[in-house]
Amino acid sequence: MERPGPSEVTGSDASGPDPQLAVTMGFTGFGKKARTFDLEAMFEQTRRTAVERSRKTLGRGPGSPEAQGCHFPGENCGFLSKEKRRKQLLEAREKEEEMNREKELRRQNEDIEPTSSGSNVVRDCSKSSPRDTSSSESEETSDSSDDELIGPPLPLKMVEEPVSHMEEEIIGPLPPPPFEEVEEDDDDDGDSEEEDNPVQKIPDSHEITLKHGTKTVSALGLDPSGARLVTGGYDYDVKFWDFAGMDASFKAFRSLQPCECHQIKSLQYSNTGDMILVVSGSSQAKVIDRDGFEVMECIKGDQYIVDMANTKGHTAMLHTGSWHPKIKGEFMTCSNDATVRTWEVENPRKQRSVFKPRTMQGKKVIPTTCTYSRDGNLIAAACQNGSIQIWDRNLTVHPKFHYKQAHDPGTDTSCVAFSYDGNVLASRGGDDSLKLWDIRQFNKPLFSASGLPTMFPMTDCCFSPDDKLIVTGTSVQRGCGSGKLVFFERRTFQRVYEIDITDASVVRCLWHPKLNQIMVGTGNGLAKVYYDPNKSQRGAKLCVVKTQRKAKQAETLTQDYIITPHALPMFREPRQRSTRKQLEKDRLDPLKSHKPEPPVAGPGRGGRVGTHGGTLSSYIVKNIALDKTDDSNPREAILRHAKAAEDNPYWVSPAYSKTQPKTMFAQVESDDEETKNEPEWKKRKI
Question: Which intervals of the chain are annotated as region Disordered (predicted)?
Fold first, then answer.
């Protein structure tokens, strides 16, 4: 908006007051001559006053703002303290305001006409002067605030002389206080130390223990958001833990056996978190949803077909499985039938593709573990002959990388895991070693660490979220020490940290990148969660702060009950009872309480045969389970009745009593020596 000149700032015609207008408006004072303002002169005077004031206050020293090229005191100068600058600005503003007020009063007195109406005009002007001054103050304040940030330019004549003088005396701004530098350096050193030392980022200051059961926790799974944990073990159970809904009692909200009587070997959430892959000791993998309901089950193959590529599924026990990190609904399993198969959730009747590991001589070899790369383009599998083979996901014939002596032959390599950058592969061998491989130069291991005992075929390893550490667990015999969680630095592969978990083996370990918490499965049925209140997010922190819920007490009536004894039956409300009485009543009801039927007493009823009755069937039922075994000698049992049968023949002898000849036997010689060596048929004569 352009500023109006002196001739443009005009009021109404000053020919004289209008009496009709005064009556209409309710006050007099009209006819005042319009005031004129020279805004440019006002701004120029304000600028000069501010410059003079700043010169007097600050001087012309080498460290002054004027010597450094700052001709107006403001917050951007940086040479004075904030309090001193604020005082100077306030003084300059007060002086400017006083000068402006004096000028305005002078001009008002000059413009007023010496008439009878002039007194009214002067009175009105005096009344309106505070309003005008306040507006002028606001304009000056806004201008001064703008000047504080940038400052108005000086005329050329005023700038020429100081510039030549400033060029000779420029030294530079004063350095900041020394103690601030020391503090900043200390903070920077602390941050650099934390960045250089990855051990400081391990969240192990606090822990919680989840009781899964009494047998080995052989599988752990955590959804991508970190809200739910699922555990599986040798007791065939799969338990669900919800951190947000769990209190300090640390109890699972659901337990099920999805694979009946097969040990759980692997559990993993899909990349979307809505499905869980369950791999057990059977030949058929299952997929369940977040609540434990079955989504699909892989088909079983034909074990009588020689070529495993021609079957529709696995024919032997599974080892492990893994979801594709990018494609929804695709997963992979490996089995004792010497194949690695990929599946799709939408097509459970047949696998998607089959990979057949082979030795260098072309013989079959059983894969013990498998996994996808971070981008999902590679499939890696470790085999029983100690080799590690890596295929392209779309090429199933020949492996892209094949290292035949990665670990000792005959040992089960329990885990292979890719780093987050996708260039490094870690393998946990059954030969008590942990090795690191660069897949870009897959001809020898980068590093190798030994002395890590393992006794479980699913002992795994994982990378830290920042890819600077590698974690694995160790196994111990019962009563021979404690299992440990061992941390290796990826750059040097030094053993930098250890955590004593419990007096049992450490089987599973999982380091979630979002929560920054470590989950551990042990051999004594425990699942432990390690976290740090400052470094970790959500997860175990949500349930630790919740107090344990009290036992649910019997509920009482929640609303008033109106008793109407004389109401008609159709309008009569059923009498309300407390939950305690209803539970006691349901307990007595055999249908609601699922009470097993007691054995039938008496002759039988309801289609059931009684165990004590007078019928033949009841007698048979009663005596069918009696133990009638005779452990005596059968010959003695028969001869026991021989004398009674001879004295009182009843069955066979009376029938042949008339026709049966009388048997006659020759006398046996008493000389034992003569008859000792004779055959038996010579001794008997008829």
Answer: 1-24, 47-78, 91-204, 572-611, 663-686
Q: Of 433, 438, 406, whose CA–CA distance to 421 is shortest?
A: 438
DSSP state at residue 224: T
Helix 116-149, helix 82-111: angle, nearest 10: 160
Dist. CA 406–CA 408, nearest whole Å: 7
DSSP per-residue letters across 486-538: EEEETTT--EEEEEEEESS-EEEEEEETTTTEEEEEETTSEEEEEE-TTT--S
CA 122 to the chain's CA centroid: 80
CA distances from residue 412 to 220, 425, 454, 651 in whole angstroms, order as listed? 20, 17, 10, 75
Q: Please give the pLDDT value at position 216.
A: 93
Question: What are the structure tokens assigned to 163, written together?
Answer: 């510039």
Token pair of 630 as six digits: 């005779």
**Cα(256)–Cα(298) distance, integer angstroms:** 19
What whole-number distance in Å separates Cα of residue 501 and Cα of residue 524?
11
Would you state the pLDDT for residue 506?
Answer: 93
Question: Hey, what are 315's tokens?
Answer: 């024919």
Reported as a single tens digit per residue, the pLDDT across 604-630 is 666 666 655 566 766 676 666 555 565
Residue 109 contacts residue 32 (beta carbons within 8 Å) = no
Tell me the helix, strand and coil percentages in the chain, rounded to 5: 25, 20, 50
Q: Angle at the Cα of 527 (from 456 to 415), degrees rounded to 5? A: 35
Say if CB 122 and CB 116 are below 8 A apart.
no
Tell me what the pLDDT averaged over the chain comes to: 76
Angstrom distances, CA of residue 184 to CA of 7, 174, 197, 201, 632: 60, 18, 20, 22, 100
Under 8 Å between Cβ of 420 and 463: yes
Beta partners for 435? 427, 448
Please list the residues that pair with 208 across neighbouring strands. 529
Q: How far is CA 609 from the centre of its chain?
A: 59
Whose CA is closest to 428, among 470, 385, 386, 459?
459
Mean pLDDT, residues 494-507 taken together: 92
Distances (CA, A) of 326 to 205, 371, 490: 34, 13, 26
Residues in the chain, how many?
686
Per the confidence metrics, is the pTM higher than 0.90? no
